[in-house]
Structure formats: structure tokens, C-alpha cells
Design goal:
mainly alpha, 5 helices
Length: 164
């Protein structure tokens, strides 16, 4: 029984990670782009969905209602994080200015690095919550199917990375 519970925990964790990675990547996607036109459908950079959360929702035969709910979840998360993009850009500009200054101020660079880390942590936490919320929209069978597809894709990617 304990092994079964552990396997289920791993499956749910894999799904949450897959949704989180796709959601984080999707947060930068402009409104109205992606598979089926949904705002959270496209995940630039791939993640575990190979670039398309919409594709994974196709794989699990997600209903229109599920798609709509998941799109709304990630849209809300993106809106929550929208102000962070500008703040992040300003931090990057500050860092560039610090590195190009006549004298390198290590303490100031470290302070900006810490601010950037805190911002990334906040974004990660928000997208993780969105992923949990999205996972709850899917059935256990759908989450297991996503975990299975993600596991196969991960194995294929690992195979390609092996030295020949």
C-alpha cells in the first residue's frame, strides 16, 4: 500500500512540475497566442510539454470546460506577475550599470542579485500555485496520462544526451 501511495505522489508531483514548467514559460506569452488561441496554451522554451500545454490537454482529451478553467488559472497568474516583468527589467538594468561602473561595488551587485532571487522565488511560488490549481481541474486519470507522456519524453531526451 505504501508503494502505491508513493507512486501516486510521484505522479502528482510530476504533473505539478510539468504544469509549473509550462505555466512559467507560458506567463511570458502574449495574450491570444498558442494552441486553440488560449492565453496559456503556448509554452515557449518547451518545458515538459514540448512547447504546448494545449497539446497535452489534447492528449488527455480535456473538455472545453477544463481548458477554459486552466486558461483562466494561468491568465490570472500571469496578471499577478505582470508587474514583475518591468521590475525585473529594471533590476537587470541596475546590474548592467553596476558592472559597467568605473568601480565595481560588490555589495551593491549582491543586493541586486538578492532582489532578483526574491523576485524569481515569488514568481515560482505563484506559478506553482497556479499549477496545483490547474492539476486539480484534471481527473486523476488525466494527470496520470500527462505524467506518463512526460516520463516518456524525459527518457527520450536523456537518450539523446548520452554520449555516443
Amino acid at each position: 500500500m505504501k508503494a502505491f501511495q508513493f507512486q501516486n505522489l510521484l505522479r502528482v508531483g510530476t504533473v505539478a512540475a510539468a504544469l509549473a514548467l509550462s505555466g512559467v514559460a507560458a506567463q511570458a506569452q502574449p495574450e491570444g497566442h498558442g494552441h486553440r488561441g488560449g492565453p496559456a496554451a503556448m509554452a515557449p522554451g518547451g518545458g515538459l510539454f514540448g512547447g504546448h500545454i494545449g497539446h497535452m490537454l489534447d492528449v488527455v482529451n480535456a473538455t472545453d470546460a477544463q481548458r477554459s478553467q486552466i486558461d483562466a488559472i494561468f491568465k490570472a497568474a500571469r496578471q499577478d506577475l505582470s508587474g514583475q516583468r518591468e521590475a525585473g527589467a529594471k533590476l537587470h538594468e541596475q546590474l548592467a550599470a553596476l558592472y559597467t561602473a568605473p568601480n565595481i561595488d560588490a555589495a551593491a551587485i549582491e543586493a541586486v542579485r538578492q532582489q532578483m532571487g526574491a523576485q524569481h522565488e515569488a514568481a515560482s511560488k505563484r506559478m506553482s500555485q497556479a499549477s496545483i490549481d490547474a492539476a486539480r481541474v484534471l481527473t486523476p486519470e488525466q494527470r496520470a496520462k500527462i505524467a506518463e507522456v512526460a516520463k516518456r519524453r524525459h527518457a527520450r531526451m536523456a537518450e539523446h544526451r548520452r554520449p555516443g
